[in-house]
Model the fold of this input.
Amino acid sequence: MLEKKYGEIAIETAELEAWENPYPDRDYQIEITFPEFTCLCPRSGYPDFAIIKITYTPDKKIVELRSLKLWLNKFRNRYISHEAAVNEIFDALWNLLSPRYLRVIGDFHPRGNVHTIVMVERELT
Done:
């Protein structure tokens, strides 16, 4: 049996981490692009590839980028729809950060001549 590589272990155990916002008194936007997102189609098992774009205005917390990268890689072997993946990413970040504003876009590469973009956004009211 092959031993797992350190990267595989890091991905398996990844949890999102929040850090203190260094400027909680200021409105500013953070944009994060994750161009190599992958998951598996729950119907066919074929791989789906996407660019995940995250834009948020932090309040008291910001997301630690290494934890986000590893956590997003956990999707690569999961059977999950485009809509479910984007909504799960959104919910996890919203619950972790309680930002003033959050938008998550999943821009999925065409498969079978169909191009899908899923967007979820919310502003703190």
